[in-house]
Write a structure and sequence with these properties.
The two termini are about 20 Å apart. With about 150 residues, the protein is mainly alpha-helical. It is built from four helices and no strands.
Length: about 150
């Protein structure tokens, strides 16, 4: 493989998936955390650590078993678009990963047999796939710079 496609190796995608899961779990844990002074009496609240750990497991499973395999397919399809400018290639890639997230949301809903929260699940998975793409692009840049030194 060439240096420009180094992130397409499984190691790069797995690292991007783990970083994405950690990032999204942190954001979700902070968003859902209720400070001690705002808690209602006689109401149970999960700790930040619990929410982070459970979110990490769920997000990691979604990323490793759903988004990552679909991204390999999308990346393979995008290799055929060689005539595009860099800007157009980036726009097509973002659109493809957004579609990947939507399809992933459908697959997740079918797998869990939960269609009542389909829109929330789809938004979560679309966001996850776009963050996953961002980490891949950032890692690709760092891989390119470290390999050229």
């Amino acid at each position: 493989m060439t240096n420009t496609h180094r992130i397409n190796r499984p190691r790069g995608k797995i690292l991007a998936a783990v970083l994405t899961a950690i990032f999204i779990s942190l954001v979700m844990g902070i968003y859902h955390y209720v400070p001690l002074d705002e808690r209602i009496e006689n109401t149970f609240y999960y700790s930040f650590g619990y929410k982070f750990a459970v979110g990490l497991l769920i997000n990691l499973a979604i990323l490793l078993f759903l988004i990552m395999p679909l991204s390999i397919l999308v990346d393979g399809l995008l290799l055929y678009r060689k005539k595009d400018t860099t800007y157009m290639r980036l726009l097509v890639t973002i659109a493809a990963y957004g579609l990947l997230g939507f399809i992933g949301g459908i697959i997740f809903s079918i797998f869990t047999l939960n269609f009542t929260t389909f829109s929330a699940q789809s938004i979560h998975i679309i966001g996850s796939s776009l963050v996953f793409l961002t980490f891949q692009l950032v890692l690709n840049r760092s891989f390119l710079h470290s390999s050229s030194q």
